[in-house]
């Protein structure tokens, strides 16, 4: 972004109606200016050269050249922050995850033209994501880098506590500090799909159970967990309600349920909850972290990765107070340092490490030699 000027956006979408809706939404922000819109990537290519936008919104399915091919070429020839406009289908989820792997900063579902009651909420979300994308330094590394943003962490990090209390109370949690079963909890949001895969790639098959809450729509869960499973030596899946926990497994919270870990006798059990969103998210990282603070205490490791907002910060603080070791991703390797930055402000991070070193830090904290069987 140039100085204090407005964020200059180019919209690329083959639907005239979507182009008009996105233009109206983004122009409603005093800090964003839509330079124009393009119906296909060939038109867009000429407009990018002429207008030099700060951010692109990009549809995946378009005539003449699909969005992924266009994105791959763009990132090679003229790296630019991109927010993908995604369909909430299995096919759309798979394509969007590939786009994030190619370097897109974030995504948002296509606006529903027949649904005015949610348009204000949608507008707020896409404006926030374009602002985040405008700060991304996509020229500097394989992962998009972003300057830190101050999301008012200290106030909002503790705001959602009563809501989480209610969910945990319904889960009948009992704190038992005598367990010797180690578990790992990971939370992530913007930039997290690639960050989670990077961490999972470094974990051997016999690592203790890992629980991941990543902010994603429900339609994305199956695709994302397949990506994780292909990346890691561990076994990744989406758990069922009341499923017993096993070492060597990664459990991903489904995109429409909170995930908690509770104690049943001497064993951990996963519980899923359809309660209201917490910190505007379902699943919420705070719900997972606070459940593990209660059920595992010092036997847990909490990890907070890249993400917009503050979800997970107060939960990580509670894990820390319960004796868990806590790790946050550092600012330079984060796409957005909102969530880890909020935890940093609360003073509850034992270790601040680059993304590439998170898996090794987890294994070191586990005392890998004594926890895992030799390979």
UniProtKB/TrEMBL annotation:
PROSITE patterns noted in UniProt: CHEB, RESPONSE_REGULATORY
Which keywords does UniProt give here? Chemotaxis, Cytoplasm, Hydrolase, Phosphoprotein
GO cellular component terms, alphabetically, are: cytoplasm
Name of the featured protein: Protein-glutamate methylesterase/protein-glutamine glutaminase
- Which NCBIfam families is this protein grouped with? PRK00742.1, PRK12555.1
In UniProt terms, what function does this protein have? Involved in chemotaxis. Part of a chemotaxis signal transduction system that modulates chemotaxis in response to various stimuli. Catalyzes the demethylation of specific methylglutamate residues introduced into the chemoreceptors (methyl-accepting chemotaxis proteins or MCP) by CheR. Also mediates the irreversible deamidation of specific glutamine residues to glutamic acid.
Question: What molecular function terms (GO) are annotated for this protein?
Answer: phosphorelay response regulator activity; protein-glutamate methylesterase activity; protein-glutamine glutaminase activity
Question: Subcellular localization, per the record?
Answer: Cytoplasm
Q: Does the keyword DNA damage apply?
A: no
Positions carrying 4-aspartylphosphate are: 59
Q: Which SUPFAM superfamilies match?
A: CheY-like (SSF52172), Methylesterase CheB, C-terminal domain (SSF52738)
Q: What is the lineage of its organism?
A: Bacteria, Pseudomonadati, Pseudomonadota, Gammaproteobacteria, Methylococcales
Gene that this sequence comes from: cheB
């Amino acid at each position: 972004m140039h100085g204090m000027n407005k964020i200059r956006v180019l919209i690329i979408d083959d639907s005239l109606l979507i182009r008009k809706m996105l233009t109206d939404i983004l122009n409603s922000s005093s800090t964003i200016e839509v330079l124009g819109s393009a119906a296909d990537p060939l038109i867009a290519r000429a407009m990018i050269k002429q207008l030099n936008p700060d951010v692109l919104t990009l549809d995946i399915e378009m005539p003449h050249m699909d969005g992924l091919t266009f994105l791959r070429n763009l990132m090679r020839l003229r790296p630019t922050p991109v927010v993908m406009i995604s369909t909430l289908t299995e096919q759309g989820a798979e394509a969007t995850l590939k786009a994030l792997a190619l370097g897109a900063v974030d995504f948002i579902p296509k606006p529903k033209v027949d649904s005015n009651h949610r348009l204000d909420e949608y507008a707020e979300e896409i404006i926030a994501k374009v602002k985040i994308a405008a700060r991304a330094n996509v020229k500097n590394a394989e992962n998009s880098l972003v300057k830190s943003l101050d999301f008012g962490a200290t106030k909002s990090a503790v705001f959602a506590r009563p809501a989480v209390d209610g969910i945990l109370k319904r889960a009948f949690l009992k704190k038992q500090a005598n367990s010797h079963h180690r578990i790992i909890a990971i939370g992530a949001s913007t930039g997290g799909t690639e960050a989670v895969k990077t961490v999972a790639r470094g974990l051997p098959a016999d690592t203790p159970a890992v629980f991941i809450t990543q902010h994603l729509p429900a339609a994305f869960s199956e695709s994302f967990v397949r990506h994780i499973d292909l990346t890691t030596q561990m076994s990744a899946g989406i758990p069922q309600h009341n499923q017993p926990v096993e070492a060597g497994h990664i459990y991903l919270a489904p995109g429409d349920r909170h995930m908690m870990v509770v104690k049943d006798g001497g064993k951990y059990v996963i519980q899923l909850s359809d309660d209201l969103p917490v910190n505007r998210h379902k699943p919420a990282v705070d719900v997972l972290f606070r459940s593990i603070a209660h059920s595992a205490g010092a036997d847990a490791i909490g990890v907070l990765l890249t993400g917009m907002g503050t979800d997970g910060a107060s939960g990580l603080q509670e894990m820390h107070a319960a004796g868990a070791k806590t790790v946050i991703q550092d600012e330079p390797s984060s796409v957005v340092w909102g969530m880890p930055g909020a935890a940093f402000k609360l003073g509850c991070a034992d270790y601040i490490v680059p993304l590439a070193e998170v898996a090794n830090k987890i294994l070191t904290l586990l005392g890998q030699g004594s926890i895992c069987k030799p390979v």
